[in-house]
Amino acid sequence: MTAVTQTPAAPGPLALGLRQGRLEVKQFARSREAVVFTMAFPAIMIVIFASIFSGEIGGGVNFTQYFITGMIATGLLSVGFQSLAIQIPAERDRGVLKRLRGTPMPKWVYFAGKIIMVLIVGVVETAILLAVSALFFDLDLPSTAARWLTFLWVALLGISACTLLGIAFSSVARTARSAPAVVTPVALILQFISGVFFVFTSLPSWMQHVAAIFPLKWMCQGLRSVFLPDSFASQEPGGTWELGKVALILGAWCVIGLILCITTFRWTTKRDG
Fold first, then answer.
1. Looking at the DSSP assignment, which residues form a beta bridge with residue 166?
2. Per residue in 230-268, is it b (16+ CB within 10 Å) or e — as a string?
3. Whole-angstrom Cα distance, residue 115 to residue 113?
4. 3-state secondary structure the chain
5. How far is CA 233 from CA 37, 60, 221, in A?
């Protein structure tokens, strides 16, 4: 009697997404430059800032306690927006996206892999930054569950907005070679005007108004509510932490980013048609 050979069951959506996520993490880890720049850059910057500005910013708070918020936010911007907006055009240029589109794999799996990679790298990067700052530069970590919860939702909304905007912005660069030149200035300008390297309220008012349009400023502000005493809320432009507004604007950027991804993402280069 002939045995009946059963076809293995196709993996479910969760298994497909996790498999693609593992592949993306492995590819990221193999790129030494990406690992060093993306994961080590915020920690290097906090070492530089903490070494230069070793005094207090006021109210018994040292500079590290203030600038850690900007370093966390810029780290999430780097892994979510900057890395994807540079990485995806390179894959498009090499024909990777065109080949993926021609396979039976659902298109959403590709994006799920990118999202999983960004989340894992973002968590590890933030953990390294907090560990370095707490061990060597007297950073006081949040002391209450409420502050940790605020940290969680601000970081999650922020990295979600940055990831979606990074995927959408990946269609701006025409080639892989031009992507860093297109993306890096945008990220740097946002960092300078959003209170990453300077006390936000010391910036010119017009610069503060421009920064308030974009998510990075609100990520920094939300994180300041986690790491700074409540007395510092009065020094914000609105006189309070405005956490409701932080959530609203970051959430709005998530929606805008999703719409832009759906309407502008390209699987092929213009020369491929």
1. none
2. eebbeebbeeebbbeebbebbeebbeebbebbeeebebe
3. 5
4. CCCCCCCCCCCCHHHHHHHHHHHHHHHHHHCHHHHHHHHHHHHHHHHHHHHHCCCEEECCEEHHHHHHHHHHHHHHHHHHHHHHHHHHHHHHHCCHHHHHHCCCCCHHHHHHHHHHHHHHHHHHHHHHHHHHHHHHCCCCCCCCHHHHHHHHHHHHHHHHHHHHHHHHHCCCCCCCCCHHHHHHHHHHHHHHHCCCCCCHHHCCHHHHHHHCCCHHHHHHHHHHHHHCCHHHHHHCCCCCCCHHHHHHHHHHHHHHHHHHHHHHCCCCCCCCC
5. 32, 15, 9
Mean pLDDT of 193-213: 93
Q: 186-219: buried (b, 16+ CB within 10 Å) or exposed (e) per residue?
A: bbeebbebbbbeeebeebeeeebebbbebbbbbb
Dig out the tokens for 221 from the structure.
């502000």
Note whether 76 and 152 are within 8 A (CB). no
> Alpha-carbon distance 149 to 66, whole Å?
19
pLDDT > 90 fraction of the chain, expressed in percent and rounded = 66
46/133 Cα distance (integer angstroms): 7
Query: Which has the minimum average pLDDT: 48-52, 76-80, 157-161?
Result: 48-52
pLDDT tens for 148-177 read 999 999 999 999 999 999 999 999 998 899
